[in-house]
Amino acid sequence: MNKMFVVLAVAALAGCAAPWQNESKEESKRPPRLVTETPYGLSNLYEETSAPQLYSVIAARVTNKMLDQTTEIYEKAFPPKLYIMQIKKAGVEHIPDGFYYSRQVTRDIIKGSKTFTLVNTQDEADYHLDIVVSRLDVKNIPGNILQYKMTLFDKGGNEVGSWMESIRQVQNDDRSWW
């Protein structure tokens, strides 16, 4: 055990050569080199890495709006049964991955609020929630806009209410969404 420790310590110390000792005076006068392009040709690296967080933000906003505006439905002795439909994608071009996460965020918020009883089939539900995620292309507005729309239907297929929120991509270096 001690021999292994000594070998690892010697190997670690052998690689600790000071970089400034090997530099010439000409190299030390050059300004630092900054990389301005995304490495390995990943042009949409920043767009895709923030997508799950993006969807959680927008899903939480819309779900909370829906819960605030449907109090007359669920403030009863027994909470009504709700089925959350699979999310649909609509709109132009590519929608960033991670939209499936928004359904889970919506489910978690509704389950935590104890306002509705979540069910696994539409047949046993009193209401069902339809969710559509779309990417909008608005003329004369730079950047991408994602829209998250929830529509609540009763058992007869009548629309009870509709809630929508959109989030726009910020026009900065990393093209983040907030």
Structure notes:
The longest helix is centred in the middle third of the chain and has 19 residues, at 51-69. It contains 7 helices and 6 strands. It is of the alpha/beta class and 178 residues long. α5 (51-69) runs parallel beside α7 (100-113). β4 and β5 (145-154) form a beta hairpin. Strands 1, 2, 3, 4, 5 and 6 form a 6-stranded mixed beta sheet that branches.
Task: Note the topology.
Blueprint: H1 2-14, H2 19-22, H3 25-29, H4 45-49, H5 51-69, H6 71-74, E1 81-84, E2 88-91, H7 100-113, E3 117-118, E4 127-136, E5 145-154, E6 159-168
Parallel strand pairs: 1-3, 1-4, 2-4
Antiparallel strand pairs: 4-5, 5-6
Helix pairs in contact: 5-7
**Secondary-structure element pattern, one letter each:** HHHHHHEEHEEEE
Number of strands: 6
What is the mean pLDDT?
A: 77
Shape descriptor reads elongated
